[in-house]
Specification:
There is one protein chain. With about 500 residues, this protein is mainly α. The protein is built from 23 helices and 3 strands. The protein has helices at about 5-20, 20-30, 35-45, 50-60, 85-90, 95-120, 125-140, 145-155, 165-175, 185, 190-210, 225-265, 270-310, 315-325, 330-345, 350-375, 380-395, 400-410, 415-430, 435-440, 445-470, 475-480, 480-495; strands spanning about 35, 65-70, 75-80. The protein has a 3-stranded antiparallel sheet. Helix 1 (about 5-20) crosses helix 2 (about 20-30), helix 8 runs antiparallel to helix 11 (about 190-210) and helix 14 runs antiparallel to helix 16 (about 350-375). It is globular.
Length: about 500
């Protein structure tokens, strides 16, 4: 085969792998040697049989692998890379899923420890956030451009319905161990720091792997013709998500069991309540994740592709505003945050005010994402000034608002964002012919950033109003001691 023809095949295969991640993973798996169909399927994490068969036929037609059929019963088929397939596979620097998961987990773990130390030693949250975000943007200078949006998205998608309640409850417990006036405000900020860890570690991962092409899997709607087939599609997915949820809850259970064995702190009734709570959490998460991944995410992709296929593409911006405004109501972790904010603040920051502020923030973020998709605007031009404004505002608002604001950024970018808004942006980007990796990815990062500004602006307005209004006895009762003390301390320091 001539060098010109070989280069043409490699070019075609590279273009093909960008559209289908499975084919790239097949080539990488076959680097280990000749494999049978079942071995390949297990190596790819249980990919659908029909999908694998179709991809293998395409790769064989491209001359990237060979198929050998043995005259046996049952039939035996083996797949081997050709010389061109081997050359192409060595060029594909994919990040293994297990490596990515472990990297993100390490980032959350390290920064959770930092967050705990901050609460115990009453360290200034605003200063820590400023230092860490400056470090993040410094690292972006050495990370491939294709990896930037994925890295910042990682900070948002890790704060899900399991992480947020657990980390926030841990913050309340740690702050309760202190008896000083700032303990209430210091109960916030753990989610904020835990969101930084994955971004930092994924950026470092990008520097190690230097991926020249970022791959993604297009979301496909399950082919169903009847109600029975629809139910079967959901039922088939339940075992996979049940396994994932169980694996994510096992470490928490182990820590709890060890704590109980060494301290014997909880009585039988409390233990029973916790067991019921774990069961409810497990069932709820399995049903939730199955629903959003099997039914919700494909709808987002199809909706985005359909809306962007029309003549009036700029109508996507006001539509995105509406979607972002109302999707906050469906984000489970946001309701947990709002309830805790209302409880810690003694009603000074109401559930309704937080919902309205976050709705405005997320709506603005989704609209900005549609502008990026339609114009190809670099993520840098939004992230750098956005975080600069957010960090500057930390010096003008009460510390409790700083913690709430940066926690809300991580909470707002939860499972509803990653399973609906991200596929929506990918569908739009595909329809307009943009670069999915650089233009569509990054929507989670924006949803995590804009609420930082929105909540701190709300805090700034609240602080100004309270300083201008004479404080009556009724008003003093309305506000919690934590917020009053925080505002007075800021006033003494000249920071407000």
């Amino acid at each position: 085969m001539s060098q010109e023809m070989t280069d043409s095949i490699r070019f075609a295969a590279t273009a093909m792998q960008t559209l289908n991640r499975h084919r790239a993973e097949i080539l990488i798996a076959l680097l280990e040697g000749t494999m049978r169909f079942g071995e390949l399927r297990r190596a790819l994490g249980g990919i659908a049989q029909k999908t694998l068969a179709d991809d293998l036929r395409i790769l064989e037609a491209e001359g990237l692998l060979t198929r050998k059929v043995y005259a046996e019963i049952p039939p035996k088929v083996e797949y081997t890379l050709t010389s061109d397939g081997l050359a192409l596979s060595n060029q594909v620097e994919a990040v293994p899923n297990r490596v990515l998961i472990c990297t993100v987990a390490m980032g959350v773990g390290v920064f959770a420890a930092i967050a705990v130390l901050r609460v115990l030693y009453s360290l200034n949250l605003a200063r820590l956030l400023t230092v860490f975000y400056l470090l993040l943007f410094l690292l972006t200078l050495f990370t491939p451009r294709e990896f930037l949006a994925v890295a910042f998205d990682a900070g948002g998608v890790t704060t899900g319905p399991v992480t947020v309640p657990f980390i926030m409850a841990m913050g309340v417990g740690l702050s309760a161990a202190r008896s000083d006036s700032k303990s209430g405000s210091d109960s916030f900020g753990l989610v904020a720091l835990c969101s930084i860890g994955p971004i930092l570690t994924v950026l470092l991962l990008g520097m190690v792997f230097h991926p020249s092409e970022a791959l993604y899997t297009t979301v496909e709607i399950a082919p169903v013709a009847t109600v029975r087939e629809m139910w079967e599609a959901f039922i088939r997915a339940i075992p996979n998500y049940a396994r994932e949820v169980l694996m994510s809850m096992i470490p928490v259970l182990i820590v709890f069991i060890l704590f109980q064995l060494f301290t014997h702190r909880y009585q039988r009734r409390q233990l029973l309540r916790m067991q019921v709570g774990f069961l409810y959490t497990f069932i709820g998460l399995v049903l939730f994740l199955t629903g959003v991944n099997v039914g919700f995410a494909p709808v987002g992709n199809l909706l985005g592709y359909t809306m962007a296929g029309g003549e009036y593409k700029w109508l996507l911006i006001p539509i995105a505003l509406l979607i972002g405004f109302f999707i906050v109501k469906a984000e489970p972790a946001i309701q947990v945050l709002n309830n805790q904010v209302e409880e810690i603040s003694g009603g000074a920051i109401s559930h309704k005010a937080m919902n309205a502020t976050l709705s405005i923030g997320v709506a603005s973020a989704v609209a900005l994402s549609m502008v990026r998709v339609l114009t190809g605007l670099s993520l840098y031009w939004i992230l750098i000034p956005g975080y600069a404004i957010a960090l500057i505002l930390t010096h003008f608002v009460s510390p409790i608002f700083v913690g709430i604001a940066f926690d809300s950024g991580g909470v707002a970018s939860g499972p509803m964002t990653s399973t609906f808004l991200l596929p929506l942006a990918i569908g739009v980007c595909t329809a307009v012919g943009g670069n999915v990796v650089t233009d569509a990815f990054g929507i989670v990062a924006l949803v995590a950033m804009v609420p930082l500004i929105a909540v701190q602006v709300m805090g700034l307005i609240t602080t100004i109003r309270e300083k201008r209004r004479p404080v009556s006895a009724d008003t003093m009762q309305k506000f919690s001691d934590d917020i009053v003390v925080a505002i007075e301390e800021d006033s003494d320091d000249g920071t407000v």
